[in-house]
Amino acid sequence: MQQSEVLGDLDWRSVMMFPSALGVTARERPERFRLEAMTEVTLRLAGVFFIVGAIMLQALLPDNASAQLVSSSRSLSLISVALGLIIFAYGTRGFRHQMRLNIMQRTLELTRININDQGRVSRTISIDDIESFYVVRPTTPKGNAKLYVRTQTSGTPFFVIGGQQDEIERLHQEMCSSIAVAQKMGAQAPAPDLVKA
What we know:
The chain is of the alpha+beta class. The chain is 36% helix and 32% strand. The model is unreliable at 1-9 (pLDDT under 50).
């Protein structure tokens, strides 16, 4: 059963939004990412398996092993540990998206979060560098809308967050309102455009 919360006149089912005096924070709900959560757990277990395998390889090495066997065993263990760490790190990077707009620090932080709600991959954009936000509507009736931010310094827009169209459009409005407040507090750049694709 999918959880929901009511914020204003909207029943939020795909995104969790937390507006505050400092701006707005939103993240994709974990219920939408069950397969990705299982993938994260599987990758973490595989990483641990490689590391434990490397330790066991060294522990089970006989005392009278030849120098060549010891050398190749160490090389194999090091490769296994390195591979295990890479797989484990990839498994903790996260598949869900979170955004935090802070009007006091004048930043928009885009983060990927894992099943433990820990941010692993993050990008920070200055509010003054934001050119516009826009919503890409879903191509199918039950599809997800996507919110993007376009900056003045990058030709490629950055994905912010995805979810049901009405929720993404409301989040879009909240972000633009928060930036308008930041502009009144002394921003020099014009407020980003409200654009819907």
